[in-house]
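Structure in, sequence out. Go:
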């Protein structure tokens, strides 16, 4: 009996270590494959697929549709365990990337993009669920920060290799895509073989779950998706259109972003763990208000570049939203709610680019002022996050009503 008591914590520690290794390797796999797809897309689509603005718009819309339909991952859990679904999603992502270079046509690129996007978005949905389930509430922010830092390093190395391969060796697009796809499939196979099914801490619902008490989390996720579109679509476009940034200039910004993330992500993770989700979210949204207003006013390319890097750093603070949900969620709701929240996050991705694109034609500054307004709304939501969130105390309204009733 004494031997069991001593070995049980050791066995649990070993399982936690293996879970963290699985999460890290799978995240690095995504960083490598998606970085290759993203880094080459614009040049490949223009030079080989003869894309114009219309085709690029269609492709980006198609890319976001699987994210909007991410709730479908819940129903696949009727057939597969979450861990195996994550591995299968990595394989699909890698296959989509590996095939991209062989189909340099409009419909070919649309098709491979959809395949890639299904794998990417379904993995991200399941990965969020597994992180929340496998990581302890106290350690989760720090571990998530470390994983984010190491994946940024993987993306940085990948981008540097691509730049050298294309600049000095003139490696053809199809070969770079193929190598990334093969490497991704190899990493997915390694995860399948090397990591037998890790035990689930709670049985997950196999149907869609929408709970009234999660409303604040849903709202935060939706606003996060809206903010992401302004950065991904319009911040980079501002750098090119207004300040005339070349491919090399944008590549340098990307490298600086990754270096900043490598250094800051672990610190942000520890910051979340020490100061709490509410305070981190308040810092994030106050910062975004300033950044978006500055985007609308800036006339200096050095200032604009600094804003672009600062804007990207705020993405690391999304850790706080994940750990907030971890603290308020019923364990059996995590997988289903992760799928639903990913769909909510992508509602903005389907709607906003078209609307804000029309606003851009009137005044680019207005796009960022609208973004600042969204950040103000997000700040209001963050003020409703309790200092110590937990089931039954999901929002400040709920906390105050409990106190009053008591």
């Amino acid at each position: 009996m004494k031997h069991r008591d001593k070995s049980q914590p050791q066995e649990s520690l070993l399982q936690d270590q293996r879970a963290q290794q699985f999460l890290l390797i799978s995240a690095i796999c995504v960083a490598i494959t998606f970085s290759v797809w993203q880094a080459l897309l614009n040049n490949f689509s223009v030079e080989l697929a003869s894309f114009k603005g219309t085709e690029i718009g269609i492709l980006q819309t198609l890319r976001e549709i699987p994210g909007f339909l991410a709730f479908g991952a819940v129903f696949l859990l009727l057939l597969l365990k979450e861990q195996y679904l994550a591995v299968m999603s990595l394989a699909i992502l890698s296959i989509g990337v590996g095939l991209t270079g062989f189909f340099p046509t409009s419909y070919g690129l649309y098709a491979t993009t959809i395949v890639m996007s299904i794998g990417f978005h379904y993995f991200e949905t399941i990965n969020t669920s597994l992180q929340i389930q496998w990581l302890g509430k106290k350690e989760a922010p720090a571990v998530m920060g470390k994983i984010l830092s190491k994946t940024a390093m993987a993306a940085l190395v990948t981008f540097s290799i691509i730049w050298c391969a294309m600049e000095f060796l003139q490696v053809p697009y199809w070969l770079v895509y193929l190598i990334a796809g093969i490497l991704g499939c190899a990493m997915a196979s390694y995860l399948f073989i090397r990591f037998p099914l890790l035990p689930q801490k709670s049985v997950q619902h196999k149907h869609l779950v929408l709970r009234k008490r999660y409303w604040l989390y849903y709202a935060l996720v939706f606003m996060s998706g809206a903010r992401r579109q302004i950065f991904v679509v319009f911040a980079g476009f501002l750098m090119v259109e207004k300040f005339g940034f070349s491919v090399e200039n944008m590549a340098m910004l990307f490298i600086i972003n990754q270096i900043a993330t490598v250094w800051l992500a672990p610190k942000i993770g520890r910051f979340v763990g020490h100061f709490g989700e509410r305070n981190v979210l308040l810092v994030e949204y106050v910062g975004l208000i300033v950044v978006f207003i500055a985007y609308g006013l800036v006339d200096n390319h050095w200032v604009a570049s600094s804003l672009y890097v600062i804007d990207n750093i705020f993405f690391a603070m999304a850790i706080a939203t994940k750990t907030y949900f971890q603290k308020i969620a019923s364990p059996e709701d995590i997988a289903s709610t992760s799928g639903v929240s990913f769909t909510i996050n992508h509602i903005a991705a389907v709607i906003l680019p078209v609307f804000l694109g029309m606003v851009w034609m009137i005044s680019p500054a207005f796009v960022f002022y609208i973004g600042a307004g969204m950040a103000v709304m997000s700040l209001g939501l963050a003020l409703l996050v309790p200092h110590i969130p937990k089931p039954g105390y999901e929002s400040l309204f709920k906390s105050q009503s409990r106190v009053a009733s008591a």
